[in-house]
Please model this.
Amino acid sequence: MGIQKFFIKAVAFTLLNIFLLVAVLLFFSGSNRDIQFNIKDTESNLLATGANRHYDIGLLGTSRGRVFSRDDNHQRVENLLQKSLVNLSKGGGGGLMPAKIHLSYFYSRGNSVDHLFYLVDPWVFYSPINNENNTFFLRDEPFELSILWQLITDRYPLNTIFSYLKMIAVTDWQEISRYAGPGLTSGTLKNIDHEKVQQAKIYYQSRYKKESFKRYCQYVDTINALAKKHGSKITYIILPLLIPDFPGIEAVDQKLREVAKQQSHVSYINLSTAMQNTQYYYDHMHFNTRGISYFSQNVLAPILEGKDLSF
Amino acid sequence: MLFNSLQFSLFFLVVVTAYFLLPHRYRWGLLLVSSYYFYMCWKAEYVLLIMFSTVVDYFAALRMSALTDQKRRKKYLALSLTCNLSILFFFKYFNFLSQSVHQTLQSINIFYDTPLFKVLLPVGISFYTFQTLSYTIDVYKGRVSAERHLGIYALYVSFWPQLVAGPIERTKHLLPQLRQRYEFDYPRVVGGLRLMLWGLFKKVVIADQLAVYVNRVYNHVDDYQGLPLVVATFFFAIQIYCDFSGYTDMARGAARVMGFDLMENFRRPYFAKSIREFWQRWHISLSTWFRDYVYIPLGGNRGVKWRWYYNLMITFLLSGLWHGANWTFVVWGGLHGFYLVIENMSGSFQARIARCISAGEQTFMNRLTRLAMTMTMICFAWIFFRANSLGDAFSVLGNMFVMHSSTTAISVVGLPLLLCDLCLVLFLFTVDMLERKHSIQDVIADLPLTLRWLFYTILLWIIAVAGVFGTRQEFIYFQF
Model:
């Protein structure tokens, strides 16, 4: 008798909460779509990209791609290239899995882009912290049911899903999505600290889960399929690295080379050994304003014009 | 496996369902296997340590109960103590001792590299070692008879709800329960689940939210002066209480669902009006363990006064050391011992001061003064407990009373989060205050169904939205 009573009440209580959950999620989903921030004032993608817009070029990547929109760089790149730019890169190490979510949401809002540049960091092909374990890539994005659904179907851990659910409680979007280090890209790296470089190498490698490589590679195919479906070209560029012989870079190079060979809308360039001058960086990882301008003029512009790179 | 993880939710559901479906004679087996599995989820090979302790103590106790010769009985007790304490020493204290020797030698210009072992501290080792030690000591003293069923005894040592962070159970209390047959009892099961929910709330909402502030300050103590250090110390007092009592509530709740009654570990400790009273309310299972197996055997409060104070100091220094192999814990324990000695010498100086401030013994002002003084002393000691090193602790003390500091309490996490933290503290104190007369559990149980469900739903939603999940937020007491 006790078990029966308990079971009935437990089921009723669970159903009630599921109903409440659905109602709350429906209520909050998309409730912040009317907020529109200028991309230089926010790290959020959803709050800046809008709906039904057309862009000439788009960027995907980690913070190394995000710097193209921090400070005044977004406008600078647009002026240099004379193209409209959407930056879907995500600071905090957003890897392939987060990139797929951001890109598919971007298209789902009726947006389009002619040419996508995926600014590749090799570690995103190996590290869960850049992919399913990355709770950072949604910490400043408003709640959308479609994104929640993707998190579930892409088998993100509960921790990531919970941290995204918490976005329903955010009220001050300006504050939460503001970049914490404005002005950084105006600095210049003085010299390469080889000890730091070595430490960084060890640090990145310590986070590798090599068996996940194949799984993360599948997201390259998904991203390519998405781009093709929406009529976008996509170019993968392994960004210049001040860390020589980065662990795992060969496998990434091989994968991207294969993909570019097989799919006509995909191209690939490995620039890991280019731009080794410290004047292009503000730290050992990120381009500064000069680096961004140089990269835009000497890499992005020639690609867009169909010219060969001068490296 | 953390109590605040999805993995545990599934484990709990499966084990409890199987427990009630199985005939009574197989239940101990289920609980034993599930307990070992629970432990192995953390580091599988360390389960061998538990098994080793179990087997040694099982046979030592059996031999002790079979023998009448006191000398030979003592040998078996010595065997049990040596085995258990050696394991504890090797895994927990060897490196600490080695480093301390190294530093001491270095200070007198002797440079000798003392050996260090790269071993991970087995989670909960201090808890289950103390539990199994109490068993052999009790058998030796004739307080309990030896358990003949190896499986039941192994379950007593490794019972999963209290395996990694207590409460440290006594043989007389837990062992007989493991043989008892428990049917599904609706009020008991719901009561257990309610306790688990409340414990989870305390851990993932209150403790882990306050941890943000505390960690930010205590991990960079040199960056802060004045009020942020005071607030962080006060928040740590609440954090550790909610963290540990939250774990205990979940452990007690989980055990209660299956019919077992684990001992109470906390009784509103921050409402203590003296340090003596605090120790009757804080980590009760450990403080009574030290009382029964260290303090009283040392002589307790019998004999001359200096001996009494000596016994107190030794007990609390050991209690500090039990918490961790670091001088910060030793100082923390020593401070509490010192407080108690002073309290005993002066007949509770908090009471004397309170008498000077207020008119009568039973006035609100009198009680509040004693309470505030006790809380201040406890918080002072927590500085050493939380600080990453003795140097950090002294840095906190040195910078705490700087009046014109460049950092404000708000600057640490911002005003909204600070307000949120303060609300949580206020909420906790309100609940604890209300519990003085009635258990909140009983009050909730007596509410009409709609209000009860509304309360559960709100609590669940706050946990989901404001709770901090993931391995980053392990329970503080796991490290002991």
About this structure: Chain B is about 70% helix and 0% strand. The radius of gyration of chain B is 23 Å. Chain B touches chain A at residues 6, 20, 183-186, 189-190, 416, 453, 456-457, 460-461, 464-467, 469-470 (CB under 8 Å). The CA atoms of residues 123 and 479 of chain B lie 6 Å apart.
